[in-house]
Amino acid sequence: QVQVVESGGGLVQAGGSLGLSCTASGLTFDDANMGWFRHYPGKEREAVASVDSDGRAAYADSVSGRFTISQDTAKNTAHLEMSSLKPDDTAMYYCAVKGSSSNCLVPWTYHYWGQGTQVTVSS
């Protein structure tokens, strides 16, 4: 059974930093492509960052230059380091995993999702 577990959310002041981690287990494919997404109440889930099994990272324009995603393919883990956080970054953050390396910033291409972790940035 595939499990995706996020950790590391919390409360941080604007301008601060926070790291999120994601671990996937029980995968039935060899190459894990992982993405981070966030959800604002009443809105569609949006992409934050992704990293494919070859280590290629992609970012949403809203976080480019502030967030960094990395992956440990041997452990099927992904880490999202967030810096210069803004109140607009407040959201529920979800990690997702899939076997295909295409369209890694598109949420509906992912098969497996974690339960989410809340990030709150105070002004």
Q: Can you offer a commentary on this structure?
A:
The chain is an all-beta fold and 123 residues long. It has no helices and eleven strands. It has strands spanning 3-7, 10-13, 18-25, 33-39, 46-51, 57-59, 67-72, 77-82, 91-98, 112-113, 117-122. Strands 2, 4, 5, 6, 9, 10 and 11 form a seven-stranded mixed sheet that branches. Strand 5 and strand 6 form a beta hairpin. The N and C termini lie far apart (40 Å). The model has no long low-confidence stretch (mean pLDDT 95).
Chain-wise SSE layout:
Layout: E1 3-7, E2 10-13, E3 18-25, E4 33-39, E5 46-51, E6 57-59, E7 67-72, E8 77-82, E9 91-98, E10 112-113, E11 117-122
Parallel strand pairs: 2-11
Antiparallel strand pairs: 1-3, 3-8, 4-5, 4-9, 5-6, 7-8, 9-10, 9-11
